[in-house]
Amino acid sequence: MLFRPTIGKIQHEPLLSDQPARQMQTPAGGGSINFHLRSKFTALMLLAVTLLTGGAASAEGITRDQVLSFDTRGALAALEDALIVHDEIPTLESSKMLGRDQRSANEDLDNLVQEAIEVFESDLITGLRDQYRKLEDDLESERNRLTEYRAERILASREDPSLRAKLVPGETLKRFVAVSRADYDALIETTQQNIANLEEEKANTIVQMSKALNAIGVELNSDQLEVMMASVIGDDIVTMSVVFNSIKDMTNQLAELTQESGENLAHAKKYYGMVVMLHRIIAAMQENFVKQVDEKYLPKLEEYRQTAQANIKESRELVNVGTGVATLENNIRSNKLTIEVIDLYSGQLKSQRKKVSNGLEVTLREMNVANNTYNTVSLSSAVVSMIREGSNTFEHLISIQMPDVHEFQNDEVREEFRAITAKLNM
Fold it and tell me: Which parts of the chain sit beneath pLDDT 50?
């Protein structure tokens, strides 16, 4: 968390954590490097300047390189580690009681692929996304606190401010000593200001995230991005957009490395093998997305829909009895809104799932071709053009998975949408 709201002002915290930098071996095995340290420092400093200035000048100047600030040496090391295991798998037995087999090697490869995904993420966008999520949590806490203060105010027996509430400094202590309506009026006023400050900071954060995504070709305005971030798949879409763009840039760098390797077939083949690993990274992300939507989110939404329909049916039956008609009619309207938003939510998930599923078909086909080429390549001069073909494939995948996002019709739909997301995340 880069900023934590306090009463009437923003408190700044250290930009860099106390965690030591991850040590990685260079591809050639010579010495160690501070993995991601320089790129993380650059990205976090950019994030800090952007937020501190309100996004006025610095956000306009965000470049693709600043957003995709992954460490190339770290990426090469991660890809080479994965490639070593990939090459080992055909030499192993498919299954055995003791010792290493293809199943255990594939598990290791899957783990290495997940680690490689983290290498290609954007520190800048991740920082903004975490900031946004933290602000959402803080807003929920402040709104709950506001509700509590209003309830306590009604129950308070005194009108005038209490002496201890006057003497005790700070909201945190005042909330423990408040006894009168005037005490709670002061707490309510402070909490409302906190909420306003948090809303302003949240709006600013989404603007900066939109500009950072625009810098890598993901054209979403602030309102569209807010809708996407309200969805249970919002973080996944952002991550895939970032990682796919990083992979495209990494592929271009692999083409340059291959070009510089000249006639060295061993080096050229290794770099092309890394392209195969890049395909596998993308496939892993796509497969996980489709699985989550099919096996978790859509079934849950259908459950919520059936529950809402059952509630409507029960309420209508009770209306016929003639008791509490106004309350029951409100219940019916509320559940109809829930069904409307569930249908909107399901449509969004199915639309993005179709895009990712179509992308997965392309990825699997191209990955099989690339793997076959990797096993049979015999001319280093042909590898550069084949790597560039991989870059074109990644560009195509980025374009076909671009999200279609529509803005919320009104605040009521927005809040119901967020409530469903909270249930899906439980």
Answer: 1-43, 45, 49-59
